[in-house]
Amino acid sequence: MSVSAFARFLGLNQKTLDLYMKGERKPSVELIVAVCSKCGRSADWLLGLAPANAVATGDWRARAIVAEKKLERVNKALGHALKGFEELQEAVK
Taking a C-beta distance cutoff of 8 angstroms, is the pair 67, 74 a contact? Predict the structure, then answer.
């Protein structure tokens, strides 16, 4: 598959994929998980840590990392909301 065809397959701009391939840009965890899912491979394989026949059949570690990142964002948003609520309560007093 050509680089341009692979970029289309992944839903990426070819220039973006070129930057990843050259190491000039780092993919997000979400992108790694999406690539593994579309290609039917594990994150370990994609990162060069497993043989080519390693299939993504429940790559729970990658999903756990994504879930942890999302939880961090939710916790941060909740912290901001709580601070705003406390400030509102003080203003109402």
Answer: no
Greater model confidence, 26 or 66:
26
d(CA 30, CA 55): 18
Task: Let me know if 83 is exposed, middle or buried by CB neighbors in 10 A (0-12, 13-18, 19+).
Answer: exposed
pLDDT above 70 covers a percentage of the chain that reads 84
Cβ atoms 25, 15 nearer than 8 A: no
pLDDT at 30: 87
Every domain of the chain and the residues it spans: 3-92
Query: What is d(CA 93, CA 13) in angstroms, rounded to the nearest whole number?
Result: 53
- pTM attached to this predicted model: 0.50
